[in-house]
Fold this sequence. Notes:
The chain is an all-alpha fold. The chain contains 2 helices and no strands. The protein has helices at residues 2-27, 32-35.
Amino acid sequence: MTKIKSMYYSLAAFSAVLLNAVMLICANTNSCLMIYQPKAPEALSKFSKIE
């Protein structure tokens, strides 16, 4: 039973490292949303805290 637990823990640690690497790569790359941003409608200005 402890061998299976240790395998689960090592798999969990590996997946955590892998997901952190994926998040780091995705956070530092451009996406298509950054390239094309449509203009905000004028009706949204009433929700702005900055006048």
